[in-house]
């Protein structure tokens, strides 16, 4: 069986499924980048727990974890099945790695999961297992979660980290809701940050990446909080110790909100 790559995707807001944007069209083209997976394990920035949790739900419902968006978004569904057997395997791998996982028997798909998957795999016929982040833990811890799950790639499982390469919502909502002009300096800070990640991921420079808060340019301006960046370390870790990242998409919204995505192999 072909060894699957892993993915990091910047999932955008829930309205990405309606928007005519490069980021949306990129997500629609994901199946052209890799073999069809037999199942998906996805780590969403919107699934936060104390420690790491795995969802064993055989039929997850929907979580509309947003407000003020178009009414039709609240009617959308993504009926992909869960995979309790794969979830049990994930729990076992995490336990073997000493990560003390816990299980959640029922949990729906948050928008970090269902919106990108609805675009990439609209038939909803690939089983999905959800795995959480812990916003109190660092990059090294999230990398270790992914590293523990690297063997799944040899079984046709696609491992996805769903977050955002930049996530300064204060600046974004100032533009979106108040009509304010973005700080022109912010675009340069975003480019410096995203280019630094592209360089380090391409080189497989794990030491620098795990020290991103000190070494990357303008970390606070791009991530006032860390949770949306943690899935990139998960996806990078799942590619194995020799994994390298190729930036497969790099559009920018409103001049500063970056949508970079990566393929790791």
From TrEMBL:
In alphabetical order, the GO MF annotations are:
ferrous iron binding; oxidoreductase activity, acting on single donors with incorporation of molecular oxygen, incorporation of two atoms of oxygen; zinc ion binding
Q: Which cofactor does it need?
A: Zn(2+)
List keywords of the entry alphabetically: Dioxygenase, Metal-binding, Oxidoreductase, Zinc
> Which InterPro entries does UniProt cross-reference here?
Extradiol_dOase_DODA, Xdiol_dOase_suB
SUPFAM superfamilies recorded for this chain? LigB-like
Please name the Pfam families in this protein's record. LigB (PF02900)
The reply to whether Ribosomal protein figures as a keyword in the UniProt entry is no
Location of the Extradiol ring-cleavage dioxygenase class III enzyme subunit B domain: 35-247
To which protein family does this belong? Belongs to the DODA-type extradiol aromatic ring-opening dioxygenase family.
Q: What is the protein named?
A: Dioxygenase
Give the organism the record lists.
Pseudaminobacter soli
